[in-house]
Write a structure and sequence with these properties.
- The protein has 2 domains: 12-69, Arc Repressor Mutant, subunit A (Orthogonal Bundle); 75-258, Beta-Lactamase, CATH 3.30.450.40.
- It has 9 helices and 8 strands.
- It has helices at 12-23, 33-39, 44-57, 78-83, 85-101, 143-150, 154-161, 177-190, 232-258; strands at residues 60-63, 66-69, 104-111, 114-121, 136-138, 193-196, 203-211, 217-226.
- The strands form 2 sheets. A 6-stranded antiparallel sheet has the order 5-4-3-8-7-6. A two-stranded antiparallel ribbon has the order 1-2.
Length: 266
């Protein structure tokens, strides 16, 4: 494959890696090696080496019959989050919820056995753990993680939880698989989750699912409080209804957005 730029400062290998990332098509959960190589105009051996590198770094995950991007792509820069318009839709909803509750609210997606924060509106609170866009926590002991895991089948949960956490966080609650699956059954039945200092001391949180137009859990939204300041009764009695209403409204926003067909490119 010829170089596309004769300047000695141009790194062709980097360009090919970006070509391959861009080759993943919207609306396709996975693509095969052959499909990606063709879409990126790369020889299959070159595409295979790039995919191996991206998978080793955590930006791509191999799935049955192909590959899929992971949300670790967010780590390539905040510009990604700012340019994905669904998060532009989400931010006003987050701000509205924070104004109603006076507490921080975040949105996260699943990345293996971890959650990754992809949107957040915070209020000043003395919380044990610092949270920013891109922060990772183990999924099981978080309200966000429980909601996201509850959106999977038990077999998928087992597969996901077999992956080691990359968060570097030592959680207080470390359930074995049967205990976790029992907990997720309750989350599925009630449609929301609660964690009470399971991740770290002083952190109490509730979360609800965010669904796309097909009804699939796409992400999760939470309200986090300091356990010494806000009781479970207040969290469940006052904040939970507001969280559920906001999550429902945002899910409807996303469903309407998903219903808009992609414009054909000329």
């Amino acid at each position: 494959m010829p170089r596309r730029d004769s300047n000695p400062n141009f790194v062709e290998a980097v360009a090919r890696g970006l070509d391959l990332i861009r080759a993943f098509e919207p609306g396709r959960p996975s693509m095969t090696l052959a499909e990606l190589a063709t879409a990126a105009s790369l020889p299959r051996p070159t595409a295979s080496r790039i995919l191996y590198t991206l998978e080793t770094l955590g930006y791509v995950r191999s799935v049955s019959g192909g590959y899929t991007l992971t949300v670790r792509i967010l780590e390539l820069g905040m510009t990604y989050v700012q340019q994905v318009d669904m998060w532009d839709v989400a931010r006003p909803r987050l701000q509205e919820l924070v104004a109603q509750t006076g507490e921080s609210s975040s949105i996260a997606e699943l990345d293996g056995s971890d959650i990754v924060y992809v949107a957040r509106v915070a209020v000043p609170k003395l919380i044990a753990l610092v949270v920013r866009i891109g922060t990772k926590f183990p999924a099981a002991p978080t309200s966000l993680g429980k909601v996201l895991l509850a959106g999977l089948s038990d077999d998928e949960v087992a597969r996901v939880m077999a992956e080691p956490s990359r968060s570097g966080i030592e959680a207080r609650w470390k359930p074995d698989l049967p205990e976790l699956i029992d907990s997720l059954s309750e989350v599925r039945a009630q449609g929301w989750s609660l964690t009470d200092e399971q991740l770290a001391s002083g952190i109490r949180s509730i979360a609800a699912p965010l669904r796309d137009g097909s009804g699939q859990v796409r992400a999760a939204m939470n309200v986090t409080v300091h356990a010494a300041e806000t009781s479970k009764e207040v969290l469940l009695g006052e904040h939970l209804p507001k969280l559920l209403a906001t999550a429902s409204a945002l899910s409807a926003d996303w469903a309407r957005r998903d219903a808009i067909p992609y414009a054909e490119q000329s």
